[in-house]
Amino acid sequence: MARQLVPGRSSLPPADYLEETRALYNSLGYDSYRWAERTEVTPLTPLSKPLSDSKIMLIGSGGIYRQGQVAFHTKDDTSIRLIAADTPTSELRTAHFAYDQTDARDDINCVFPLERLHQLVDQGFIGGLTAMHAAFMGGIYSTRRLLSETLPRLLDQCQEHKPDLVLLVPV
Amino acid sequence: MFVDAPLGHTTGPPGEPATQLQLLTDGLTAGAAIKQSGTIVPLPYRWSDDEWRSDALSWSRQRQDQGDTGRPPGSAPSDTRNERNPDPQFQTAKDAELAAATDWDDQCLVCVGIEP
């Protein structure tokens, strides 16, 4: 399979992960998976300045860690990793159980585009980057623990590093 | 922003820096222009073939065929989910050595929420 993204839209609907997951659970004899549903609307905070003046913080859910750090485990790991802006791409790793990591391990910019963001700063498209960025393991099955453990840790970092905009990259 | 690509390629395909940059530029521009909470903007790109989308979790079965899910051989053959493991899943053995050699106080500064 050619691994390329090309301009245009597919004529087919998006991949139906919900249906595939339902089918897998049913085939194993489990009850239907209960996805978290959020009904409340979070108010929009508009960007207060142009992108070219904005400082950006990158947060990725793809289980990214830096060589020398403890890797994520895969049983509801609610910890986070701080990734310094000047981290060489060659030192970034992934530890995750719910996506094929082959391409991300070949080129971490597939899931954590730190190198590309530096280029956008050089081009003047964005104003700058925070000194620290963050990553976590998105495969947390407990919504309660995600909300009470992971999110406060990420919020603390946002409040410390004060970005104008946080780029969340789900995986 | 919705990127219509297989899992693991949220910000583009590997080894395609120009595409990755364009995707980020388009995504940030569209995100900055949003006027209403909950807006979903599909970015105008598609994967170069459509085969993956009819069986988007097939990679997990391929892993099982290779005996690579962390499950004991022969167990639950129809269960293609990876074993969930409470131990750190280092990408390489060298990573595990380097993490073990890192001073614990230094480790805590960059790994928030882990215990010795």
Written description of the protein model:
- The complex is a heterodimer of chains A (171) and B (116).
- By secondary structure, chain A is an alpha/beta fold.
- Helix content of chain A is 26%, strand content 19%.
- The model of chain A has no long low-confidence stretch (mean pLDDT 93).
- Chain B has 4 helices and 2 strands; from the N terminus they run αβαααβ.
- Chain B has helices spanning 17-32, 58-65, 93-101, 104-110; strands at residues 45-47, 111-112.
- The longest helix of chain B has 16 residues, at 17-32.
- The mean pLDDT of chain B is 86.
- At the A-B interface, strand 1, helix 1, strand 4, helix 2 and helix 3 of A face helix 1, strand 1, helix 2, helix 3 and helix 4 of B.
- Strand 4 (80-84) of chain A pairs antiparallel with strand 2 of chain B.
Summarize the structure.
Chain A is α/β, with parallel strands linked by helices and 171 residues long. Chain A has four helices and eight strands, in the order βαββββααββαβ.
H/I helix tally of chain A: 4
In angstroms, what is the radius of gyration of chain A? 18 Å
- Give the rounded overall mean pLDDT of chain B: 86
Based on DSSP secondary structure assignment, what is the total number of beta strands of chain B? 2
Euclidean distance between termini CA atoms of chain A:
20 Å
Largest pleated sheet of chain A = 5 strands, mixed
Query: Count of helices of chain B?
Result: 4
Class from secondary-structure proportions of chain B: mainly alpha
Mean pLDDT of chain A: 93
Main β-sheet description of chain B: none
What would you call the shape of chain A? Answer: globular
Write the layout of secondary structure elements.
The complex is a heterodimer of chains A (171) and B (116).
Chain A: E1 5-7, H1 17-27, E2 55-60, E3 64-66, E4 80-84, E5 92-94, H2 102-106, H3 114-122, E6 128-129, E7 132-136, H4 143-161, E8 165-169
Parallel strand pairs in A: 2-6, 2-7, 2-8
Antiparallel strand pairs in A: 3-5, 4-7
Chain B: H1 17-32, E1 45-47, H2 58-65, H3 93-101, H4 104-110, E2 111-112
